Amino acid sequence: MITARRLFTVALAAVALFAAGCSSNNKGKIEGKWKVTAPPDKDAKAAEGFKELGERGIYMYMEFKPDGTFYLGFGADNPGALAMLKMGMPGGKLEFPAKYRLKSGNKVEIYDLSADAKQLMSEKGDVMRSDVIIEGDNMTVKDPDGTITKLTRMKDGGAAPAAAEAPKT
């Protein structure tokens, strides 16, 4: 005969297993600003645009705030280049807000994208779901179609870590 105490212990163990299975690998690691170092590998148009921006000293970043706010944005070391980019951006904006939530394992959902962000990202749906793998200061975003984007954590208010910079000659 099963006692109430034994039933409670089994139920508690089941809840603990369920909670452990639903935890995110990215909790406490994703927060911060991440510079895109390699654009989506399956998108030739994005790769060309990324190369062109890089030649002008402009970079793209993703920022994950602790409150669940997400930003896709552009920055530059050259304010003049950034001003030129702003003229060609949807709504003249350089930062596009959305929200994110951590799911189990490596899953991350970005939702509540503005119309401008959807246009910029060629996104048709309301929710973007990706696997996000974080190893130290490196992030790999893998989309459901297998597309991979690489990012590096930015330090000191926007500067990329020294290890991620190209060697100076």
Give an account of the 3D structure:
The chain is of the alpha+beta class. It has a single domain, classed as Lipocalin, CATH 2.40.128. Helices cover 28% and strands 33% of the residues. It has four helices and eight strands; from the N terminus they run αβαββαββαβββ. The protein has helices at 4-21, 44-55, 79-88, 115-121; strands at 32-38, 58-64, 69-76, 95-102, 107-111, 127-135, 138-142, 148-153. An eight-stranded antiparallel beta barrel has the order 1-2-3-4-5-6-7-8. The chain is globular. It starts with a helix and ends in a 16-residue tail after the last strand. Mean pLDDT is 79; it is low at 1-21 and 159-169.
Shape: globular
Please identify the top-level CATH class.
Mainly Beta
Helix proportion of residues, in percent? 25-40%
Question: In whole angstroms, how far apart are the ends?
Answer: 77 Å
| Annotation, overall tally of beta strands | 8
Name the assembly state.
Answer: single chain
Spell out the helices and strands N to C.
HEHEEHEEHEEE
Structural class: alpha+beta
| Cα Rg | 20 Å
Give the domain tally. Answer: 1
Number of helices: 4
Indicate the proportion of strand residues. Answer: 25-35%
Major sheet summary line = 8 strands, antiparallel, barrel
